[in-house]
Amino acid sequence: MRILGIIPARGGSKGIPRKNIKILGGQPLLKYTWDVASKSKYLTTVILSTEDDEIIEVGTSLGISIPFKRPTSLSEDTSTSLDVIKHALNFYDEKGAPFDAICLLQVTSPFRTVSFLDNAIKKFIDTKSDALVSVLEVPHEYNPHWTFEEDSNKQLRISTGDKKIITRRQDLPKTYHRDGSIYLTKASVILNQNSLFGNSLSYILSNKSTHVNIDTMEDWNKAELICKNNVL
């Protein structure tokens, strides 16, 4: 299976300005994702998708392939990951070198390992799923069987639609949320269904102790602490 690894990194981050190339633990944030992606035995090609000249300069210095400069129209706050992925897939389709699937690796999740990435890709291939995402378990207090929605009568109803609440924590089914570290999707699902998830979605469980999805300075401080304590 030909799998395209895509590292998206636009320049206009607002929560933490220039975060994709901000120095974390002595190296640009971007380098953490590249170091892992470049060692994967399953990714056919890994590219950096960006519109930003400084990010291009840093990416080039790290040795990342940058086959195109992303249009600024795909680098706005309202731009979607799907649009960025489709742009990359169409670029290679037009060159006569199509891919079977993509692996989206966001720079803001720096602490993956090569084995974690390759295990995710192997599971994606073996299960023949339309897609696979990395997840973390939802804490029991936020389990959807214990959360509520307001109905038309201003009363609360269980968000799952259950009529009776599960009273014991031990009886709650495990539930998961996407953590943003890995997205794997068949190219045909992206191009034909306009979806990252398709009709069959597999998952891999991330390491909670080293997971961080950097969006705020609080997240950045957590990442610095992980680096400082050398718990990777």
Describe the overall structure.
With 232 residues, this protein is of the alpha/beta class. It is built from six helices and ten strands. The strands form three sheets. Strands 4-1-5-9-6-10 form a six-stranded mixed β-sheet, with helices on both faces. It has a two-stranded antiparallel ribbon with strand order 2-3. Strands 7-8 form a two-stranded antiparallel sheet.
Give the helix/strand layout.
Blueprint: E1 3-8, E2 23-24, E3 27-28, H1 29-37, E4 45-49, H2 53-62, H3 81-94, E5 101-104, H4 114-127, E6 131-137, E7 148-150, E8 156-158, E9 176-186, H5 187-193, E10 201-205, H6 217-229
Parallel strand pairs: 1-4, 1-5, 6-10
Antiparallel strand pairs: 2-3, 5-9, 6-9, 7-8
Please give a quick description of this structure.
The protein is an alpha/beta fold and 232 residues long. The chain is built from six helices and ten strands, in the order βββαβααβαββββαβα. A hairpin with a 2-residue loop joins strand 2 and strand 3.
Return the structural class: alpha/beta
Order of helices and strands: EEEHEHHEHEEEEHEH
* Gross geometry: globular
Number of strands: 10
Task: Give the DSSP E fraction (strand runs of 2 or more residues).
Answer: 15-25%
- Count the helices. How many? 6
C-alpha Rg, in Å?
Answer: 19 Å
Uncertain runs are: none
**What share of the residues lie within helices?**
25-40%
What do the pLDDT scores average to? 94
Distance between the termini: 30 Å
Largest sheet: 6 strands, mixed
As laid out across the biggest beta sheet, the strand order is 4-1-5-9-6-10
